[in-house]
Amino acid sequence: MQSRQPVDSNVNDIQPLDADTIFVMGRDGNLWLETSTNGNFVSGDQTIKTRTLITTDDIGASVALNKEEVSCTDSGLNLWYAYSPWGPQITQRWVRT
């Protein structure tokens, strides 16, 4: 049995919350929530099982508070508080510039 498993190859930064939940910042500045079942992130065809786009706002830095809340800065150094539900209608609130 292999002791490690490739999950994502386009990664700039990560913040794991637990063994099944990782926030991933891509090299393109997109922020993703990647989840697994019992530590298994990829399926047999090597695709990520559950990957949800959080934001495409060219994130500079982010801090996940939990699975439903993230604080992040955009490329203009504005601070944002983003919260679930994640998906096409992401709810964000500007905090300050």
Write down the Rg: 14 Å
Which stretches are low in confidence, meaning pLDDT under 50 for 5 or more residues running? none
Q: How many strands in all?
A: 8
Spell out the helices and strands N to C: EEEEEEEE
Straight-line distance between termini? 49 Å
| Average predicted confidence as pLDDT | 75
Using the 3D structure, state the CATH architecture. Answer: Beta Barrel
General description of the model:
The chain is mainly β. It has one domain (11-86, 91-95): Thrombin, subunit H (Beta Barrel), CATH 2.40.10. 0% of the residues lie in helices and 48% in strands. It has strands spanning 11-18, 21-26, 31-35, 50-55, 61-66, 69-73, 79-83, 91-96. Strand 6 and strand 7 form a beta hairpin.
Topology:
Blueprint: E1 11-18, E2 21-26, E3 31-35, E4 50-55, E5 61-66, E6 69-73, E7 79-83, E8 91-96
Describe this protein with a few key phrases.
97 residues, mainly beta, Thrombin, subunit H, four-stranded antiparallel beta sheet, 8 strands, globular
Summarize the structure.
The protein is an all-beta fold. The chain has a single domain, classed as Beta Barrel (Thrombin, subunit H).
